[in-house]
């Protein structure tokens, strides 16, 4: 490892060593071509499917590397971690395979499937605190009190080296890659990928993607030190990290070409895209790289590899995000029309909508609003459409039919 200042930088050789350690432990996940994204970008786009990794995310790579390099005496004391879910599962499985007891602190908001999976791998999962930051504090306190070894989710050379093996696979599977786009929270994955890729192909552009509502890197990079966010609010719980570590900040500053952000709407559209077009189940955090490509496809020189980093999503959240994604993609249309308050008015409107192939999801009748004259009724309809063009056609057709629709 090279050491600029006091920060140990992970080298390509470190990632190579981690790859040897992980051989036979982790899955070499597939690289799937996306024709739909390629058409937008103007060249080949590949998805690196870490959502199909053991435990459902890349986290097993770093957790196993870190725990495997502990001494026998350290493993005998057990390990402790803090996570919203994916790191928890990685630590739990790695500890089980290496014969170490694992305790994991998870925020109360952690998705239930992730909590259940963590316990299923044999870890003692303890819920407490509103955020991952609070869970981290609890884990560090537990380590100090019990002698357990704290396994940081991102800010450790062994963890970064393990995550960097994703980058090695990308170079092997797509030798002519020009841009690698990586979902980013605390920065362990993008730091490791950048270390691996830049050591062999310094010409490859590495882009980190954060949720705009939980983007700690921009301010931290500007300040030259980790700057904690005062608030976060994103569906992408897996990358909702209040601040990078000293180590990951140094790697991103020195090796990553750009940090971009995506909105909640971008994430919803990307999740829906992965389900509909790529046939992949991906959690909101894991789809951030795809969200960036959809939001600004011209910004990424092909061939592009977008890392799909995790697929552990609560089915209830999946349903909500898909609905949000459909709305963001213009697949829902809510409008109101005024009609005579007499029998047949509602039936006439519904017949008109049926002829336009707009699926009616709900209907509201309003007779008492001050906006109405005597003898009028306001009808609100919530529709499912085939997309923005179809929605505009529906509004235009209703206007031509004399309804003067008002879109909500």
Structural commentary:
With about 400 residues, this protein is of the alpha/beta class. About 45% of the residues lie in helices and about 20% in strands. It contains 16 helices and 14 strands. Strands 1-2-10-7-8-9 form a six-stranded mixed beta sheet. Strands 5-4-3-6 form a four-stranded parallel beta sheet, with helices on both faces. It has a four-stranded antiparallel beta sheet with strand order 12-13-11-14. Helix 9 links the parallel strand 7 and strand 8. Helix 9 packs parallel to helix 11 and helix 12 crosses helix 14. The longest helix is centred in the middle third of the chain and has 17 residues. The radius of gyration is 25 Å and the shape is elongated. The termini are far apart. The N terminus is likely disordered.
């Amino acid at each position: 490892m090279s050491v600029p200042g006091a920060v140990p930088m992970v080298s390509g050789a470190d990632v190579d060593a981690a790859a040897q350690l992980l051989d036979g432990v982790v899955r070499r996940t597939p690289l799937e071509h996306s024709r739909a994204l390629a058409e937008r970008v103007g060249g080949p786009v590949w998805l690196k499917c870490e959502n199909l990794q053991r435990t459902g995310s890349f986290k097993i790579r770093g957790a196993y590397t870190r725990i495997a390099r502990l001494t026998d005496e350290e493993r005998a004391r057990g390990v402790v971690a803090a996570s919203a879910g994916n790191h928890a599962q990685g630590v739990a499985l790695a500890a089980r395979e290496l014969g170490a007891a694992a305790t994991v602190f998870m925020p109360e908001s952690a998705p239930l499937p992730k909590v259940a999976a963590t316990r299923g791998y044999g870890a003692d999962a303890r819920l407490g605190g509103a955020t991952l930051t609070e869970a981290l504090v609890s884990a560090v306190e537990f380590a100090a009190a019990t002698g357990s070894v704290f396994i940081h989710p991102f800010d450790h050379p062994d963890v970064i080296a393990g995550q960097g093996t994703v980058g090695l696979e990308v170079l092997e599977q797509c030798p002519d890659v020009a841009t690698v786009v990586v979902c980013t929270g605390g920065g362990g994955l993008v730091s490791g990928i950048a270390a691996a890729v830049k050591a062999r192909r310094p010409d490859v552009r590495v882009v980190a993607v954060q949720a705009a509502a939980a983007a700690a890197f921009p301010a931290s990079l500007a300040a030259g030190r980790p700057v904690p966010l005062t608030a976060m609010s994103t569906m992408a719980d897996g990358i909702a990290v209040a601040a990078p570590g000293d180590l990951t900040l140094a790697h991103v500053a020195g090796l990553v070409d750009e940090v971009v952000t995506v909105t909640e709407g971008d994430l919803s559209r990307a999740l829906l895209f992965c389900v509909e077009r790529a046939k992949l189940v991906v959690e909101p955090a894991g789809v951030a790289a795809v969200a960036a490509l959809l939001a600004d496809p011209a910004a990424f020189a092909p061939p592009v590899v977008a890392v799909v980093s995790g697929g552990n999503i609560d089915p209830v959240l999946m349903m909500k995000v898909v609905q949000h994604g459909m709305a963001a993609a213009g697949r829902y249309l809510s409008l109101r029309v005024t009609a005579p308050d007499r029998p047949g008015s509602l039936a006439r409107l519904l017949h008109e909508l049926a002829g336009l192939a707009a699926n009616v999801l709900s209907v509201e009748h309003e007779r008492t609003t001050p906006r109405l004259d005597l003898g009028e009724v306001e009808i609100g309809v919530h529709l499912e459409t085939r997309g923005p063009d179809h929605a505009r056609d529906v509004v235009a057709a209703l206007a031509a039919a004399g309804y003067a629709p008002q879109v909500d």
